[in-house]
Amino acid sequence: SKSLAGVKGTETERTFIAVKPDGVHRGLVHKVIERFENRGYKLVGLKAVVPSRQLTEEHYADLKSKPFFKGLVDYMSNGEAPVIAMVWEGPDVIKQGRAMIGATNPLQSAPGTIRGEYCVSVGRNAIHGSDSFESAEKEISLWFGKAGELIDWKRSGSEWVISNN
Ligand code: UDP
Ligand code: MG
């Protein structure tokens, strides 16, 4: 079956983007959506989730040995605000999404990036984006594993946004 992250390097490539609880409290959901929509990317999945500790620990499994891991899992999963989980589709969306988000530490995020515009602390950096095709596959299946949660559709006017000629 087709990968949940689409086909790498084509216009069907997909990435997992999430506004984290601090970003939700701060009213940044619409700003994140606006940037990806304006760029020309297509929203194919969206939901509010309070992730279980187990889901959060799986999502961040590569960071399990880090000193900030427990605090990170607490703030993601304690339910003080949901995570707004999204899947975005389009050309090079995984790498471009990371560039739009900015460096992990907002004090190193370039002005104009989401973190560089709205954040000052690595522990409250507002947004997540998959860092590779393999991460996108893992994260989309973790957060959107159920059939029917991702929608295949054609954006009106997409011929004015994407062409290979
Ligand atoms: N994080 C943190 N302290 C650190 C590094 C990371 O609290 O010193 C948190 C932060 O929320 C970050 C997340 O852990 O977004 C995942 O870290 P990663 O290195 O994967 O950064 P990202 O992919 O989010 O840019
Ligand atoms: Mg990461």
TrEMBL record:
GO terms for biological process: CTP biosynthetic process; GTP biosynthetic process; UTP biosynthetic process. Keywords: Kinase, Transferase. ATP binds at residues 20, 68, 98, 104, 115, 125. One of its GO terms (molecular function) is nucleoside diphosphate kinase activity. It is an enzyme of class 2 (transferase). The keyword Kinase applies. Residues 12-151 form the Nucleoside diphosphate kinase-like domain. The keyword Kinase applies. Its cofactor is Mg(2+). It comes from the Eukaryota. Its EC number is 2.7.4.6. The active site is at residue 128. Belongs to the NDK family. This is Nucleoside diphosphate kinase. It comes from Hesseltinella vesiculosa.
